[in-house]
Amino acid sequence: MLPSFRAVSRRRVSVVVYGANTDVGKTVASCGLLQAGRRGDYTASYVKPVQTGPDTDEAWVTAHASGAAVTTLFRYRDPVSPHLAALREQRIVSDEQLAAAVGQAVREKSDEDLTLVETAGGVLSPAPSGTPQADVLARVFAPQKGPAARPSGLLVGDPRLGGISATLTAYESLCARGQRPAVVLFLGGADNAHAVEDRLKSARLSTDAQQHRTVVIVLPAIPDAPEPLDEWYADKTVRAAFSRVVRLLVDDRAFDKRHVWHPYTSLAKPGKVWKVASCAGCEITLDDGRVLTDGMASWWSAIHGYNVPGINAAIETQLKSMSHVMFGGLTHQPAIDLCRTLVDVSPQGLECVFLADSGSVSMEAALKMALQYWMAQGKRDKTTMVTISHGYHGDTLGAMSICDPVNSMHSMFRKLLTPHIFIDDLTCLRETLELHHHTVAAVVVEPVVQGAGGMRFYPAEWLQRARQLCTEYGVLLVFDEIATGFGRTGALFAADLAGVTPAIMCVGKACRGGT
């Protein structure tokens, strides 16, 4: 039994490159991945644990993937199996020494987005000690736990006659060691690749494991005269395939940083994000085990907390009948029940419900409703909105146009947006309506508290006076209760605190219970 030592976590973005057999193109594949990594702005490096013979993989990688950091740990002169080469030179490297050297090499490259560890021969080819190399490396890289574990690593399939059996045997050997490959890559041999893919698709996997199935990818065959391979590597199909493999293999955080644009961040200089494993109640558990207390309920959406059994059960029940159906010309009981409830709990006089897919879209619909109302009255000049400075109403164009034009995150889009009128207090509202009521369609406010604009609170009496002025000057009143609705201000709606009814009220976020 091998002595125990610190295993290398798979979060250190190291990928073991195995072959279903010898001479199937592992080094060619490694070079393609290193090239693709550099094209995709990933930092990448290459480690060869054991090299036998004078023609080194290190030289090939250096020639075809210039710029990549290349490391060979143990070298032997004779081009034979590592255990035979070690015996001939009387220089046997123990399993512990090999594992420790690989682990150290990978840890030294822990800042890399992608570190390739290319093995020798096939999956069960012997290490210098005679132990199958897969058994040694299983001690280096933390094994996957459970059938739902996300696979990692690359298996280069055998495109030759007999390669289907060799590839499937290698695949099953890796799975038995907790190293299910993320990708099986064939350099040619499309028939073999399709046969292997069909076999893997027919395997009985849990629902979770099906989400992380091993992907089989086949590339054009390597030319008969393999050197140089520049033209083959430059082929669009080859480049695209290697880029896809990199995206599948690279660490989730590296992929996220390179390809996922998070809200309110720079794509060029993305901020740090924390990966969430699960949520329950008011707590968020990160994938490293740390637990956070969520003080903002996912931007005020998870009003009942996370992972609520009743909400989960309702979703599961609904999925059994339908997850979605278009609402144009169709209706269904859940929608009717929701709208009936909304009419029952809303301020008196709000009796019709329009369903939208987000808060911003609901504000867009409200603005269009206000304009269309006045058009129907024959007053097509009433197109301007009046709103309070420091407000926030969403990120779509119409909603952005009534966000604060100076202090909000949308100021750079000012020239693109329809100009509206912004006021600071009730005195300004009266003066504004006296001057512009003939062109004002609606007054739009976040009642009682402006959320994203800085948590600015104001008295409910302001809403009462705004209601009076809108009635006096013939202007619609729109409440954006997306953040304040459903108990956020103490009453079910902020409108209830003032005892007024707007012409249009937008709700969202907490309405969906965080789903």
Oligomer: single chain
Helix-residue proportion = 25-40%
Biggest sheet details: 7 strands, parallel
* Rough outline: elongated
Low-confidence stretches: 1-12, 205-210
Report the mean per-residue pLDDT as an integer: 88
Give the number of DSSP strands.
17
- Estimated structural class: alpha/beta
Distance between the termini: 49 Å
Count up the helices: 19
Beta-strand content bin: 15-25%
Q: Main sheet: which strands, in order across?
A: 3-2-4-1-5-6-7
Radius of gyration: 31 Å
Secondary-structure topology with pairs:
Layout: E1 14-19, H1 26-39, E2 44-52, H2 57-64, E3 69-76, H3 82-89, H4 95-108, E4 114-118, H5 133-140, E5 154-156, H6 163-176, E6 183-187, H7 190-202, H8 207-211, E7 215-219, H9 230-234, H10 236-249, H11 252-259, E8 276-280, E9 283-286, E10 291-293, H12 297-300, H13 309-319, H14 333-345, H15 359-376, E11 384-388, H16 397-400, E12 421-423, H17 426-436, E13 440-445, E14 449-450, E15 456-457, H18 461-473, E16 476-480, H19 494-498, E17 504-506
Parallel strand pairs: 1-4, 1-5, 2-3, 2-4, 5-6, 6-7, 11-12, 11-13, 13-16, 16-17
Antiparallel strand pairs: 8-9, 9-10, 14-15
Helix pairs in contact: 1-2, 1-10, 4-5, 6-7, 17-18
